[in-house]
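Sample 3 of the quickstart, ligand cobalamin:
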Amino acid sequence: MNRKFTDVFVRYDLRLSDLAPPAQLLSPDPALQEIIDSVIKGDPIETAALVKKYLQTKDPLEIIYKALIPAMDYVSKLWEEQIYYLPQTMNASDAMQVGLELCEKKMGKTIEKKGLVITHTAEGDLHDLGQKIVNALLRAQGYEVLDLGNDVPVETVVEAVKKHKPIMLTGTAGLTVNVDAFNRISTLLSKEGIEIPFACGGGGGISLELINFRLGIYGKDAKLAPPMAEDARRGLGWEEIKDKYNH
Ligand code: B12
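Result:
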Protein backbone atom coordinates (compact mmCIF):
# COMPACT_ATOMS: atom_id res chain seq x y z
CA MET A 1 0.00 0.00 0.00
CA ASN A 2 1.20 3.51 -0.81
CA ARG A 3 1.50 5.31 2.52
CA LYS A 4 3.00 8.49 1.04
CA PHE A 5 -0.13 10.60 0.76
CA THR A 6 1.63 13.33 -1.21
CA ASP A 7 2.00 10.79 -4.03
CA VAL A 8 -1.74 10.18 -4.16
CA PHE A 9 -2.47 13.66 -5.48
CA VAL A 10 0.38 13.89 -7.97
CA ARG A 11 -0.82 14.65 -11.52
CA TYR A 12 1.24 11.97 -13.25
CA ASP A 13 -0.16 13.04 -16.59
CA LEU A 14 1.49 16.43 -16.08
CA ARG A 15 4.67 14.95 -14.65
CA LEU A 16 5.08 12.76 -17.68
CA SER A 17 3.75 15.27 -20.16
CA ASP A 18 6.06 15.99 -23.06
CA LEU A 19 4.43 19.43 -23.19
CA ALA A 20 6.86 20.55 -20.49
CA PRO A 21 9.36 22.82 -22.23
CA PRO A 22 13.09 22.18 -21.87
CA ALA A 23 14.52 23.72 -18.71
CA GLN A 24 15.23 27.38 -19.35
CA LEU A 25 18.48 28.82 -18.06
CA LEU A 26 17.30 32.01 -16.37
CA SER A 27 19.99 32.35 -13.69
CA PRO A 28 23.76 31.78 -13.68
CA ASP A 29 23.40 30.68 -10.02
CA PRO A 30 22.69 26.90 -9.91
CA ALA A 31 20.75 27.20 -6.63
CA LEU A 32 18.42 29.88 -8.02
CA GLN A 33 18.11 27.94 -11.26
CA GLU A 34 16.98 24.88 -9.27
CA ILE A 35 14.17 26.95 -7.72
CA ILE A 36 13.28 28.37 -11.15
CA ASP A 37 13.05 24.87 -12.61
CA SER A 38 10.76 23.69 -9.82
CA VAL A 39 8.38 26.64 -10.35
CA ILE A 40 8.31 26.15 -14.14
CA LYS A 41 7.65 22.46 -13.51
CA GLY A 42 4.84 23.51 -11.16
CA ASP A 43 5.89 21.42 -8.20
CA PRO A 44 4.99 23.30 -4.98
CA ILE A 45 6.46 20.58 -2.73
CA GLU A 46 9.83 20.72 -4.46
CA THR A 47 9.78 24.54 -4.56
CA ALA A 48 9.03 24.66 -0.81
CA ALA A 49 11.88 22.25 -0.03
CA LEU A 50 14.36 24.17 -2.20
CA VAL A 51 13.35 27.59 -0.91
CA LYS A 52 13.66 26.36 2.70
CA LYS A 53 17.09 24.92 1.91
CA TYR A 54 18.46 28.01 0.19
CA LEU A 55 16.93 30.43 2.70
CA GLN A 56 19.61 29.16 5.10
CA THR A 57 22.29 30.87 3.00
CA LYS A 58 20.49 33.33 0.73
CA ASP A 59 18.61 36.56 1.18
CA PRO A 60 14.81 36.04 0.77
CA LEU A 61 14.66 39.07 -1.57
CA GLU A 62 17.26 37.47 -3.84
CA ILE A 63 15.12 34.31 -4.04
CA ILE A 64 11.99 36.36 -4.76
CA TYR A 65 13.44 38.70 -7.39
CA LYS A 66 16.02 36.43 -9.01
CA ALA A 67 14.18 33.10 -8.95
CA LEU A 68 10.44 33.16 -8.18
CA ILE A 69 9.46 36.20 -10.25
CA PRO A 70 11.61 35.40 -13.34
CA ALA A 71 10.30 31.81 -13.25
CA MET A 72 6.68 32.96 -13.21
CA ASP A 73 7.43 35.58 -15.85
CA TYR A 74 8.63 32.77 -18.06
CA VAL A 75 5.48 30.74 -17.27
CA SER A 76 3.35 33.76 -18.29
CA LYS A 77 5.13 33.72 -21.67
CA LEU A 78 4.49 29.98 -22.02
CA TRP A 79 0.79 30.68 -21.34
CA GLU A 80 0.67 33.52 -23.86
CA GLU A 81 2.33 31.32 -26.49
CA GLN A 82 -0.18 28.56 -25.68
CA ILE A 83 2.61 26.16 -24.76
CA TYR A 84 1.28 25.95 -21.20
CA TYR A 85 -2.41 25.28 -20.56
CA LEU A 86 -4.47 25.92 -17.47
CA PRO A 87 -3.16 23.09 -15.21
CA GLN A 88 0.52 23.83 -15.81
CA THR A 89 0.00 27.57 -15.29
CA MET A 90 -1.98 27.05 -12.07
CA ASN A 91 0.57 24.57 -10.70
CA ALA A 92 3.39 27.01 -11.40
CA SER A 93 1.43 29.81 -9.73
CA ASP A 94 0.88 27.61 -6.65
CA ALA A 95 4.60 26.81 -6.54
CA MET A 96 5.50 30.51 -6.75
CA GLN A 97 2.97 31.39 -4.01
CA VAL A 98 4.38 28.74 -1.65
CA GLY A 99 7.93 30.00 -2.24
CA LEU A 100 6.86 33.64 -1.82
CA GLU A 101 5.12 32.92 1.48
CA LEU A 102 8.22 31.15 2.86
CA CYS A 103 10.42 34.11 1.89
CA GLU A 104 7.99 36.63 3.35
CA LYS A 105 7.78 34.60 6.57
CA LYS A 106 11.57 34.67 6.83
CA MET A 107 11.62 38.46 6.27
CA GLY A 108 8.80 38.94 8.76
CA LYS A 109 6.93 41.15 6.29
CA THR A 110 5.39 41.01 2.85
CA ILE A 111 7.29 42.50 -0.10
CA GLU A 112 6.02 45.72 -1.52
CA LYS A 113 3.48 44.98 -4.23
CA LYS A 114 2.66 47.16 -7.24
CA GLY A 115 -0.95 47.56 -6.11
CA LEU A 116 -4.01 45.61 -5.01
CA VAL A 117 -6.41 44.06 -7.50
CA ILE A 118 -9.63 42.40 -6.31
CA THR A 119 -10.82 39.51 -8.48
CA HIS A 120 -14.10 37.62 -8.37
CA THR A 121 -16.41 35.37 -10.35
CA ALA A 122 -19.92 36.75 -10.77
CA GLU A 123 -22.85 36.11 -8.48
CA GLY A 124 -24.56 32.91 -9.64
CA ASP A 125 -21.53 31.82 -11.66
CA LEU A 126 -19.16 28.89 -11.10
CA HIS A 127 -16.95 29.44 -14.17
CA ASP A 128 -13.85 30.54 -12.27
CA LEU A 129 -10.99 29.08 -14.31
CA GLY A 130 -10.40 32.33 -16.19
CA GLN A 131 -10.28 34.16 -12.84
CA LYS A 132 -7.60 31.76 -11.57
CA ILE A 133 -5.43 32.55 -14.59
CA VAL A 134 -5.99 36.27 -14.08
CA ASN A 135 -4.84 35.81 -10.44
CA ALA A 136 -1.74 33.90 -11.50
CA LEU A 137 -0.69 36.42 -14.17
CA LEU A 138 -1.29 39.43 -11.93
CA ARG A 139 0.69 37.85 -9.08
CA ALA A 140 3.47 36.96 -11.51
CA GLN A 141 3.73 40.66 -12.40
CA GLY A 142 3.99 41.74 -8.75
CA TYR A 143 0.39 42.73 -7.98
CA GLU A 144 -1.32 41.77 -4.74
CA VAL A 145 -4.50 39.83 -5.49
CA LEU A 146 -7.50 39.50 -3.22
CA ASP A 147 -9.46 36.55 -4.63
CA LEU A 148 -13.09 36.74 -3.47
CA GLY A 149 -13.89 33.37 -5.05
CA ASN A 150 -16.84 32.41 -7.24
CA ASP A 151 -20.58 33.04 -6.99
CA VAL A 152 -19.85 36.20 -5.00
CA PRO A 153 -22.88 38.32 -4.07
CA VAL A 154 -22.83 41.79 -5.63
CA GLU A 155 -22.97 43.45 -2.18
CA THR A 156 -19.91 41.46 -1.00
CA VAL A 157 -17.89 42.70 -3.98
CA VAL A 158 -18.92 46.30 -3.36
CA GLU A 159 -18.13 46.04 0.37
CA ALA A 160 -14.69 44.53 -0.41
CA VAL A 161 -13.90 47.39 -2.81
CA LYS A 162 -14.97 49.98 -0.24
CA LYS A 163 -12.89 48.30 2.46
CA HIS A 164 -9.69 47.49 0.56
CA LYS A 165 -9.61 50.28 -2.07
CA PRO A 166 -8.00 48.32 -4.94
CA ILE A 167 -6.53 49.97 -8.04
CA MET A 168 -8.72 47.67 -10.16
CA LEU A 169 -11.57 45.18 -9.83
CA THR A 170 -12.00 42.18 -12.11
CA GLY A 171 -15.00 40.00 -12.83
CA THR A 172 -15.24 36.65 -14.60
CA ALA A 173 -18.41 34.92 -15.79
CA GLY A 174 -19.41 32.08 -18.08
CA LEU A 175 -23.16 32.69 -18.29
CA THR A 176 -24.57 35.61 -20.27
CA VAL A 177 -27.28 36.13 -17.66
CA ASN A 178 -24.68 36.94 -15.00
CA VAL A 179 -23.41 40.05 -16.77
CA ASP A 180 -26.30 41.65 -14.91
CA ALA A 181 -24.37 41.16 -11.65
CA PHE A 182 -21.44 43.13 -13.15
CA ASN A 183 -23.87 45.83 -14.18
CA ARG A 184 -25.24 46.08 -10.63
CA ILE A 185 -21.73 46.27 -9.16
CA SER A 186 -20.89 49.09 -11.55
CA THR A 187 -24.07 51.01 -10.61
CA LEU A 188 -23.50 50.59 -6.87
CA LEU A 189 -19.82 51.63 -7.10
CA SER A 190 -20.70 54.65 -9.23
CA LYS A 191 -23.37 55.67 -6.67
CA GLU A 192 -20.67 55.58 -3.99
CA GLY A 193 -18.43 57.75 -6.19
CA ILE A 194 -15.91 54.91 -6.65
CA GLU A 195 -14.51 55.22 -10.17
CA ILE A 196 -12.11 52.30 -10.48
CA PRO A 197 -11.66 50.26 -13.67
CA PHE A 198 -13.77 47.09 -13.60
CA ALA A 199 -12.24 44.59 -16.05
CA CYS A 200 -14.65 41.84 -17.02
CA GLY A 201 -14.05 38.68 -19.01
CA GLY A 202 -15.25 35.18 -19.53
CA GLY A 203 -15.77 32.61 -22.20
CA GLY A 204 -18.79 31.35 -24.05
CA GLY A 205 -21.50 33.62 -22.75
CA ILE A 206 -19.53 36.87 -22.47
CA SER A 207 -18.67 39.22 -25.32
CA LEU A 208 -17.48 42.77 -25.93
CA GLU A 209 -21.03 44.00 -26.69
CA LEU A 210 -22.23 42.93 -23.22
CA ILE A 211 -19.60 44.90 -21.33
CA ASN A 212 -21.25 48.21 -22.17
CA PHE A 213 -21.86 49.57 -18.67
CA ARG A 214 -20.10 52.33 -16.75
CA LEU A 215 -16.63 51.34 -15.36
CA GLY A 216 -16.76 48.15 -17.45
CA ILE A 217 -13.71 47.19 -19.54
CA TYR A 218 -13.73 44.08 -21.69
CA GLY A 219 -10.91 41.58 -21.22
CA LYS A 220 -10.83 39.02 -23.97
CA ASP A 221 -7.82 37.20 -22.57
CA ALA A 222 -6.34 36.90 -19.09
CA LYS A 223 -2.99 38.10 -20.39
CA LEU A 224 -4.54 41.59 -20.69
CA ALA A 225 -5.13 41.83 -16.92
CA PRO A 226 -1.54 42.88 -16.00
CA PRO A 227 -1.32 45.66 -18.66
CA MET A 228 -4.76 46.90 -17.57
CA ALA A 229 -3.59 46.97 -13.94
CA GLU A 230 -0.45 48.78 -15.08
CA ASP A 231 -2.62 51.41 -16.79
CA ALA A 232 -4.65 51.81 -13.58
CA ARG A 233 -1.45 52.07 -11.53
CA ARG A 234 -0.14 54.79 -13.85
CA GLY A 235 -3.31 56.74 -13.08
CA LEU A 236 -5.33 56.18 -16.27
CA GLY A 237 -9.06 56.46 -15.60
CA TRP A 238 -11.56 53.72 -16.46
CA GLU A 239 -12.75 55.61 -19.53
CA GLU A 240 -9.26 55.83 -21.00
CA ILE A 241 -8.61 52.16 -20.28
CA LYS A 242 -11.97 51.25 -21.81
CA ASP A 243 -11.03 53.17 -24.99
CA LYS A 244 -7.85 51.13 -25.19
CA TYR A 245 -9.39 47.68 -24.80
CA ASN A 246 -13.10 47.75 -25.79
CA HIS A 247 -12.83 47.04 -29.48
C1 B12 B 1 -15.86 24.31 -17.90
C2 B12 B 1 -17.29 24.77 -18.06
C3 B12 B 1 -18.16 24.55 -16.98
C4 B12 B 1 -17.68 24.03 -15.62
C5 B12 B 1 -17.04 25.21 -14.86
C6 B12 B 1 -15.90 24.75 -13.94
C7 B12 B 1 -15.13 25.91 -13.36
N1 B12 B 1 -14.64 25.72 -12.15
O1 B12 B 1 -14.95 26.96 -13.97
C8 B12 B 1 -19.04 23.54 -14.99
C9 B12 B 1 -19.23 22.08 -15.33
C10 B12 B 1 -19.22 23.75 -13.50
C11 B12 B 1 -20.04 24.34 -15.82
C12 B12 B 1 -21.36 24.52 -15.42
C13 B12 B 1 -22.32 25.16 -16.19
N2 B12 B 1 -22.19 25.66 -17.42
CO1 B12 B 1 -20.50 25.80 -18.28
N3 B12 B 1 -18.96 25.81 -19.45
C14 B12 B 1 -17.73 25.41 -19.27
C15 B12 B 1 -16.94 25.62 -20.59
C16 B12 B 1 -16.93 24.29 -21.34
C17 B12 B 1 -15.50 26.11 -20.46
C18 B12 B 1 -15.32 27.38 -19.61
C19 B12 B 1 -13.88 27.50 -19.19
O2 B12 B 1 -13.52 27.24 -18.05
N4 B12 B 1 -12.99 27.87 -20.13
C20 B12 B 1 -11.56 27.98 -19.84
C21 B12 B 1 -11.27 29.31 -19.15
C22 B12 B 1 -9.77 29.44 -18.92
O3 B12 B 1 -11.69 30.32 -20.05
P1 B12 B 1 -12.57 31.60 -19.65
O4 B12 B 1 -13.31 31.44 -18.41
O5 B12 B 1 -13.29 31.98 -20.86
O6 B12 B 1 -11.47 32.71 -19.36
C23 B12 B 1 -10.65 33.19 -20.42
C24 B12 B 1 -11.14 34.54 -20.99
O7 B12 B 1 -12.52 34.62 -20.99
C25 B12 B 1 -10.44 35.57 -20.16
N5 B12 B 1 -10.99 36.10 -18.92
C26 B12 B 1 -11.81 35.54 -18.02
N6 B12 B 1 -12.01 36.35 -16.97
C27 B12 B 1 -11.28 37.47 -17.20
C28 B12 B 1 -11.10 38.63 -16.44
C29 B12 B 1 -10.24 39.63 -16.93
C30 B12 B 1 -10.00 40.85 -16.12
C31 B12 B 1 -9.57 39.47 -18.17
C32 B12 B 1 -8.67 40.53 -18.69
C33 B12 B 1 -9.78 38.30 -18.93
C34 B12 B 1 -10.61 37.31 -18.43
O8 B12 B 1 -9.19 34.96 -19.87
C35 B12 B 1 -9.30 33.52 -19.83
C36 B12 B 1 -8.22 32.90 -20.68
O9 B12 B 1 -7.22 33.68 -21.01
C37 B12 B 1 -17.83 26.70 -21.30
C38 B12 B 1 -17.70 26.77 -22.83
C39 B12 B 1 -16.99 28.02 -23.30
N7 B12 B 1 -16.84 28.12 -24.58
O10 B12 B 1 -16.64 28.90 -22.53
C40 B12 B 1 -19.23 26.33 -20.78
C41 B12 B 1 -20.29 27.41 -20.72
C42 B12 B 1 -19.73 28.71 -20.21
N8 B12 B 1 -21.30 26.84 -19.71
C43 B12 B 1 -22.49 27.05 -20.03
C44 B12 B 1 -23.60 26.59 -19.26
C45 B12 B 1 -24.98 26.80 -19.85
C46 B12 B 1 -23.40 25.97 -17.99
C47 B12 B 1 -24.48 25.45 -17.04
C48 B12 B 1 -25.75 26.33 -16.92
C49 B12 B 1 -24.83 24.02 -17.50
C50 B12 B 1 -25.99 23.38 -16.74
N9 B12 B 1 -27.09 23.25 -17.44
O11 B12 B 1 -25.84 23.08 -15.58
C51 B12 B 1 -23.72 25.35 -15.69
C52 B12 B 1 -23.83 26.66 -14.89
C53 B12 B 1 -23.08 26.62 -13.59
C54 B12 B 1 -22.98 28.00 -13.00
N10 B12 B 1 -23.93 28.36 -12.13
O12 B12 B 1 -22.07 28.73 -13.31
C55 B12 B 1 -22.64 27.84 -21.32
C56 B12 B 1 -23.03 29.30 -21.12
C57 B12 B 1 -24.01 29.79 -22.18
C58 B12 B 1 -24.39 31.20 -22.00
N11 B12 B 1 -24.41 31.91 -23.12
O13 B12 B 1 -24.70 31.69 -20.94
C59 B12 B 1 -21.23 27.61 -22.00
C60 B12 B 1 -20.77 28.77 -22.91
C61 B12 B 1 -21.34 26.29 -22.82
C62 B12 B 1 -22.25 26.44 -24.03
N12 B12 B 1 -21.68 26.62 -25.20
O14 B12 B 1 -23.44 26.39 -23.92
N13 B12 B 1 -19.51 24.81 -16.97
